[in-house]
Amino acid sequence: MARVAIVTGGTRGIGKAICESLRGDGMTVVANYAGNDAAARAFTDATGIPAYKWNVGDHEETLAGCAKVAEEVGPIDVVVNNAGITRDGTLLKMSYEDWTDVLRINLGGCFNMAKACFPHMRDQKWGRIINIGSINGQAGQYGQVNYAAAKSGIHGFTKALAQEGARFGVTVNAIAPGYIDTDMVAAVPENVLEKIVARIPVGRLGHAGEIARGVSFLASEDGGFITGSTLSINGGQHMY
Ligand code: CAA
User: Fold this and answer.
1) Which is the catalytic residue, given 52, 147, 179, 240?
2) pLDDT digit string (tens) for 68-115?
């Protein structure tokens, strides 16, 4: 039986590339998304991969959403916590809502998905949880105290849950992407982005597929001895 994988924020950007890569590996893939219905429809039309709508920042919605996927598609064996938002701004300009929204979705979403899916993985003694962190969680970033804190939290969450999952055959790893050519990065002001790209030794933005192949490897049978690790895919911008 093919493994069932879910990718949160899976209908666009890095998440979409991850869905396609895992499907190419022979998995049964499901995408989750929160808001953009038109993009989700286009994604499903183009790929045939079903898209389930809920907000991963909401605990009850996430438990219900994952239960629905388990019932309609099958119990979830692989979770890719990719969903994330930015609300960039310097601390002086950042609202409390900008702070809590980013923490609730980017970091809380990992907790909610793990709560929903870990019991089945433990029971069957096999599972993969792959959390998408960020270079900005490792190095910090001007204007991102919320996002950097959430992503840094993801790296700690990964190492803690990896210790709990190991004896059940559940690996938990993180990927820390650098600046990738997605809508999220396109929203960075052009003059700021130019300066960031100038600091990437490889000399360009990354591509979503370059993150997706890393996810595929960590999700594979070959990844069974890798747990609690962070794979940095950032063109050499931050060596950690
Ligand atoms: N270090 C030091 N100073 C900086 C700085 C930096 N990195 N960036 C800006 N400044 C300075 C500016 O030079 C400016 O100083 P002066 O007024 O003396 O000229 C001051 O800080 C204010 O800068 P801005 O005019 O840019 O301020 P703003 O309030 O208009 O915008 C900002 C602030 C929203 C943070 C904007 O700079 C910005 O969008 N920066 C990019 C943030 C970023 O990289 N986000 C990543 C999004 S993608 C992502 O997160 C994916 C991932 O995982 C990698």
Assistant:
1) 147
2) 999 999 999 999 999 999 999 999 999 999 999 999 999 999 999 999
Q: Is 89 in the pocket of ligand 1 (CB under 6 A)?
A: yes
Domain ranges of the chain: 4-233
Catalytic: 147?
yes
Cα 144 to averaged position of ligand 1 atoms, centre (Å) = 9
How many CB atoms within 10 Å of residue 1? 6
Determine whether the shortest distance from the Cβ of 139 to ligand 1 is under 6 A: no
Of the chain, the percentage scoring pLDDT greater than 70 comes to 100
- Sequence-ordered strand ranges (E) for the chain: 4-7, 28-33, 51-53, 78-81, 127-132, 170-177, 230-233
Query: What is the rounded CA–CA span in Å between residue 226 and residue 203?
Result: 29
> What is the dotted CATH code of the domain comprising 4-233?
3.40.50.720
- Please tell me if the CB atom of residue 152 comes closer than 6 angstroms to any atom of ligand 1: no
